[in-house]
Amino acid sequence: HPNTWTAQTAIDCLRHRDPTRPFFLQVGFHRPHPPLDPPIEYFRRYESREIPPVPVGDWASDFDQPVQRVDASTGTLPRHAIDRSRRAYYAQITHLDYQIGRLLDCLRRIGELANTWIIFTSDHGELLGDHNHFRKVVALEGSAKVPFIVRPPGSFDAPRGLRRDEPISHYDVMPTVLRQAGIEVPEEVFGQSLEPLMAGEDASWREFMHGEHSGFADQGNQFVTDGREKFIWLTESGRELFFSLEEDPQELHDRSADPAYAERVTLWRSRLAQILN
């Protein structure tokens, strides 16, 4: 399996590296991702388990039509097909978890676990029927919200189990790594080092973040979010969506035309306009 190969190759690199020099190792696992091909023993762990239905918002009726192509990004599939796909996806995650465990065990065995920064994240999620959508690229939580976990070495003074709510992104990884390596961060870098957040400090941080995608299956979008609210502009149709994520984490209710949220929608629309100006 690709993830087994990736983990084993990383382990081989660690075992054969020069132990007198520091190392930087980026390990990129392809799964979980289509094709949904977990090892069969991992799939069997989920084969008979009950799983909840996919979330479908009251705003997603435009996409409520049977899937016509194998590469479709929107549409509906029979419940059994969706459930089987999700079980396979969960099995891929469980298999990945085991491979990461092998990698961490290798660091422990060679005596480097206590000295190593470990950053875990993902490039995107997988919608698998959420709101009658598939694949990725859109700004919905199942696609755009990804895990971000940092395990610092023992020498870094930070509280254990700390969770921060500030909006961060992949562009914060490079300045974080450079700072810990004692390398100056270039002025033109947009991201910020996560060091003060990880240390539990009250840091000056961005209020929100911006994301975008274009040129794929008519799914062009621009969005801004702080993790508590989200404003989306669908650039192909001009449609707007607004979600209050604290009240509605599954994005079931579009509040963009709700008078009770008009002031918040205006604020977020202006934030996006300023970025795109």
Descriptive report:
This protein has helices spanning 2-16, 40-44, 79-109, 141-144, 173-180, 195-198, 262-276; strands spanning 118-121, 148-151, 209-213, 221-225, 229-234, 240-244. The chain has 277 residues and is α+β, with helices and mostly antiparallel strands. The strands form 2 sheets. A 4-stranded antiparallel beta sheet has the order 3-4-5-6, with helices on one face. It has a two-stranded antiparallel sheet with strand order 1-2. Strand 5 (229-234) and strand 6 (240-244) form a beta hairpin. Helix 1 runs parallel beside helix 3. 21% of the residues are buried. The mean pLDDT is 95.
Q: Gap between N and C termini, in Å?
A: 46 Å
Round the Cα radius of gyration to an integer and report it: 21 Å
Largest sheet: 4 strands, antiparallel
Order of helices and strands: HHHEHEHHEEEEH
Widest β-sheet, arrangement of strands: 3-4-5-6
Helix content: 25-40%
Structural class: alpha+beta
Number of helices: 7
Which residues form runs of ≥5 with pLDDT under 50? none
How many DSSP E strands? 6
